[in-house]
Amino acid sequence: MPSWLSRATADHKAQLVTTAVVSGVVVGSAILGLQKAKRMYKVADLKASIPDLDEDNHASRTNFELLTEYGAASNAFVASKEDERSMALAARARKGDYDDDLILEQLARNRVFLTDDGLSKLRTAFVVVVGCGGVGSHATAALARSGVSKLRLIDFDQVTLSSLNRHAVATLADVGTPKVHCIRRRLEQISPWTHFDCRNELFNEASAPDQLAPLNGQAPDFVIDAIDNIDSKVALLYYCKTNNIPVISSMGAGCKSDPTRIFVGDISASTDDPLSKSTRRRLRALGIKDGIPVIFSAERPGPGKAQLLPLAEEEFAKGSVGELGVLPDFRVRILPVLGTMPAIFGLAVANHVILEITKYPHDYLPSKSRDKMYDGILGALQGSEERVAKSFGFDSHGLRIPMTQDDVGYLVEEVYHGRSVISGLTTRLCLVRWERPSEYFIDKRTPGQNNSLLRMKDLVLMTKEEASKHERDVLKGEKAVEDLYDGKVLETVRRRMREEERFERFR
């Protein structure tokens, strides 16, 4: 090293080059140091400009309450001095008193990934999150950290001790606080420029137009469904779908433990989840069978795995268990939840919303398309009804059956899970009457037109070979179903028909 330095200083050109390099390093370091110092001063000045809020500072408290136009929650909890300082900073930041360079630096990683155009779309987006528990809180936190500037939070519930195993931001100090306000006051400490519109309300069909209304003239860019109440969930998805509001729904994270089986796909492809099954059934009854992206787990229950805990016997002894719920039909049992799974669901939901809003390329599981199969099953059912009608002496020409392709899809997928009730096979499937009909199963009141009085609860799913034998021996023969099938098959059919009767009221 000394020999190289002596040679470099002896050469006049080398001296100039060395001087230039050293000067450049010094100047560059000075510029970077100055920029860093400016950023530090900006942050320090911003924080220092907020006065300490003590008991004597009544004017500051009054100003603070006037500025919480989006949170509107200053009276929802007893705020600490740290909370009040953070909320005062957030109130000022929402009015534009926050350096944009600091915001861009905080969002630098997103900015590089999504490009300036994508980040700009995200920063101007308005997202509604319905349900602020384990899934909703993680989704909201990810969106706020990623730059979404307008978030409406809707949830009627409060933070409880049992919430803390899965909630994204709640602490012991938040127990008893409305979930929407808990999220707002915690996230304001991370992204104070975010506008939070908190609705401490239950979502339902009647309130949907108001709760999903535009914010300051801007319609929702996306709605997140993180509800675990089936009535509210169906009402939200139906409203969004029929009003062309982009929505994504989180299915059940309870009793799930395998993160490798979590998928993003169409609701028609979601399986092995009771909440998903009930949601699909109810939506299909309302005419919606696909077109809604969902987060779901394909994990199957098994020996040793968590299950929904039953109510204790003493609770039943007290009277109607429906009175134990906060709301009619609301859950009254404890749902086993591994705290990590709602977080994964919530982050997956937020990830989808970010990609959709910024138009970032992505590709998910395609929804299963079995329309051709349903058409074939419908045609076979038509032929079976015509043959049975003919065996009863009716003119079967032009016989009409009150079934559609959607009805067939509902029975195949939701009631019989795509399997024969006889053998459990999944190929060459066919719908057929279960019991021999009465002699009055054809309506002839319309001149020139015969209509079958077939009902959905009359049908079962079999293979074509099984259906052919069943039609010959039961529908056109003299045998009863008890003569052909064992007790296990009979009980399976009775159980499926009872399920269909329960869901028939939603059709």
Brief summary of the model shown:
By secondary structure, the protein is of the alpha/beta class. The chain has 18 helices and 11 strands. α7 packs across α13 (340-358) and α10 packs across α11 (274-285).
CATH class type of the largest domain: Alpha Beta
Contiguous runs where pLDDT drops below 50 for at least 5 residues? 51-76, 318-332
Total beta strands: 11
Numbering strands along the chain, what is their spatial order in the largest sheet? 3-2-1-4-5-7-6
Shape: elongated
- CATH architecture term of the largest domain: 3-Layer(aba) Sandwich
CATH topology of the largest domain: Rossmann fold
Task: Please tell me the total number of domains.
Answer: 2
Beta strand %: 5-15%
Order of helices and strands: HHHHHHEHEHEHEHEEHEHHHHEEEEHHH
Keyphrases for this structure?
single chain; 507 residues; alpha/beta; Rossmann fold; 2 domains; seven-stranded mixed beta sheet; two-stranded antiparallel ribbon; 18 helices; 9% strand; nucleotide-binding; ThiF_NAD_FAD-bd
Would you mind describing this structure in some detail?
Residues 109-363 form the THIF-type NAD/FAD binding fold domain. Belongs to the HesA/MoeB/ThiF family. It comes from Massarina eburnea CBS 473.64. The chain is built from 18 helices and 11 strands. The protein has helices at 2-10, 12-48, 58-67, 81-94, 100-106, 108-123, 134-146, 179-187, 208-211, 230-242, 274-285, 313-317, 340-358, 371-391, 405-415, 464-475, 481-484, 487-504; strands spanning 126-130, 150-154, 195-199, 222-225, 247-250, 262-266, 293-297, 429-433, 442-443, 451-452, 459-463. It folds into 2 domains: 98-305 and 337-358, Rossmann fold; 371-504, no CATH class. The longest helix has 37 residues, at 12-48. Mean pLDDT is 81; it is low at 51-76 and 318-332. The protein is an alpha/beta fold. 46% of the residues lie in helices and 9% in strands.
